[in-house]
Amino acid sequence: xxxxxxxxxxxxxxxxxxxxxxxxxxxxxxxxxxxxxxxxxxxxxxxxxxxxxxxxxxxxxxxxxxxxxxxxxxxxxxxxxxxxxxxxxxxxxxxxxxxxxxxxxxxxxxxxxxxxxxxxxxxxxxxxxxxxxxxxxxxxxxxxxxxxxxxxxxxxxxxxxxxxxxxxxxxxxxxxxxxxxxxxxxxxxxxxxxxxxxxxxxxxxxxxxxxxxxxxxxxxxxxxxxxxxxxxxxxxxxxxxxxxxxxxxxxxxxxxxxxxxxxxxxxxxxxxxxxxxxxxxxxxxxxxxxxxxxxxxxxxxxxxxxxxxxxxxxxxxxxxxxxxxxxxxxxxxxxxxxxxxxxxxxxxxxx
Amino acid sequence: xxxxxxxxxxxxxxxxxxxxxxxxxxxxxxxxxxxxxxxxxxxxxxxxxxxxxxxxxxxxxxxxxxxxxxxxxxxxxxxxxxxxxxxxxxxxxxxxxxxxxxxxxxxxxxxxxxxxxxxxxxxxxxxxxxxxxxxxxxxxxxxxxxxxxxxxxxxxxxxxxxxxxxxxxxxxxxxxxxxxxxxxxxxxxxxxxxxxxxxxxxxxxxxxxxxxxxxxxxxxxxxxxxxxxxxxxxxxxxxxxxxxxxxxxxxxxxxxxxxxxxxxxxxxxxxxxxxxxxxxxxxxxxxxxxxxxxxxxxxxxxxxxxxxxxxxxxxxxxxxxxxxxxxxxxxxxxxxxxxxxxxxxxxxxxx
DNA sequence: CCGGGCACCGTGAGCGCTCACAGTCTCCTT
DNA sequence: AAGGAGACTGTGAGCGCTCACGGTGCCCGG
Lengths: 351, 351
Prior knowledge:
Chains A, B: Residues 24-67 form the HTH cro/C1-type domain. Chains A, B: This is Transcriptional regulator. Chains A, B: Residues 1-25 are annotated as: Disordered. The structure is a homodimer of 351-residue chains. In chain A, 45% of the residues lie in helices and 15% in strands. The first copy, chain A, has 351 residues and is an alpha/beta fold. The first copy, chain A, has 3 domains: 9-68, Orthogonal Bundle (434 Repressor (Amino-terminal Domain)); 82-183 and 317-338, Response regulator (Rossmann fold); 186-313, Rossmann fold. A 6-stranded parallel beta sheet of chain A has the order 2-1-3-4-5-11, sandwiched between helices. In chain A, strands 7-6-8-9 form a 4-stranded parallel beta sheet, with helices on both faces. In chain A, strands 10-12 form a two-stranded antiparallel ribbon. In chain A, helix 2 packs across helix 4, helix 10 (186-199) packs across helix 11 (215-228) and helix 12 (245-258) packs across helix 13 (270-282). Chain A is elongated. Chain A starts with 11 loop residues before the first helix and ends in a 5-residue tail after the last strand. Chains A and B meet through helix 5, strand 1, helix 6, helix 7 and strand 2 of A and helix 5, helix 6, helix 7, strand 2 and helix 8 of B. Strand 2 (117-122) of chain A pairs antiparallel with strand 2 of chain B. Chain A binds a DNA duplex (30 and 30 nucleotides) through helix 3 and helix 5.
């Protein structure tokens, strides 16, 4: 009742220090026998600091266990040190697709090495979208990595409107403001695979394409057509409803129905290919004996199927690296260009 | 040379406003004809605010597009509004395991609905670990969700030392300070599966256990033993090196070698089971004809294998929900208890 | 008719940092 | 020997917010 308030006004400083969370720059400065300004200088770059005071400050920091208060710093610099990783996808995509996990992981590691944090945000419904926008506008993040598979994503344009640097992973929306993107060469990869199937002796080629509103769905089909020219019979192209296993099975069933004597199929994603493999198996077709199957992504699942999937490898860690590089450039005020990274063929047993 | 500095000191306010990023509370207050204090009150709770000024402030906010500066707020409240999601794992785990992705996604969504952000952090090496600790100590996050599969993770103890609320997903380290955790009932699940295999007629049961330093590796094996009692022959237990497909294949090969007449195998994770299935297939054993195979996790891959995997389902979204609930309680200063959630059997074709 | 209570409101004092500026001190040039 | 160019350092003024405090006005009981 009597000891919970400092008795003397003069002891206020000490009391404050006692209840305060951690040491401040001021404390460090005092111990090191320098001023706030000098401590600040060693904190950012340490230019124009004598080696004597540098050492003193370092020692004082060590001794006090000082860690800089990022909020205070952000308040004045208007930089947050964080970037948002925005997933503009139907909610269950992340569950199924290991590709995204890898991307995220690599970005996090790369950003972390730069002392930056990665904030994960979903944008699967209007509420979430609004939150992302609010976040960006509020300056809580210095930049946004937008992973959007869908063309003409309204979020991309809206985000662009906030003035926050944005780089898109996948493909820039065909319409709307242009902003830098990083993507794997889907079309080239599809060409690679189609040609490979041809080289392996396929004569009755079919394809399971991805949804039409995704770059993968458009570009990979385009690559398939590039190689085959006009020689694609009716019924040899079926579009999957989504990128899941179920969708792949359904599409393959449909293909088997409409184009029964196929001897090879290019499937627009590994996950889809898993479903296709199941449908093929159920139909009694042997892979690769009766039909060759080529996938796309080289996701972790590709080597787990039976038989292991011949597929197109997306240079995922390179995509991640370029993604953060481009974003960092953007944040630094430069104007990096978009990048398309080459894909390559990974031969396994399915073709 | 002459027009880049304001001519009159008196115009400074206006110039500042022009170059300033966004409207501040002060601006909103001015427009609404009230004071900063009132604006602040409507921002947090709006108690003791007349409906007239409430409306005026709301309108002024709308009109100016005001969004609160979180850094300034954090600076004084010492709360950041973010929580860290720390992955204490070898780097390639996330690539392979869809379970983590789902957990992350659900946590992000749940946290987001509370207006909180989720910061993804890796802790796969000492550098990263140090970064996490630094982050926690710096008060950049209000709490930490530590996903740690390894027992006695030094990070858990270190994190506990920072005073930041921590909840562990998986299992609390047996040693060290006790902190709340949320886990699925691994042991119970393993019992469930083992009993099921027995009920299906298995007589020569074997198991591929997870690494010994993981709760999954310990608890699931314990559950297996619970049911079988002392009746487990030599060679019927093989420990996988890791949780990957390769490791599963290797372990199954070893089992086939040391315990050739097995008629059922309980594999400690779906990913491991994928490898096991491959090894079995390569050895010419049919599943489930010759040997029954049971997995664990019910990850997305379980329905993609051939045959689809009978497995134990972890209530992932419930784990996520409890995880954030417990953390939020902790942050609020309460003392929630740990939770263990029931698992269930999912019957597919492999057993 | 006056004093006290209550709902509402404005104000000042910071939170811990950065940045520009104004010193100080040393050393080199002319 | 005077002057200036650096190198180094300290200081003040905020960044935009919250929180405690001290006013107002108004209504009610005595």
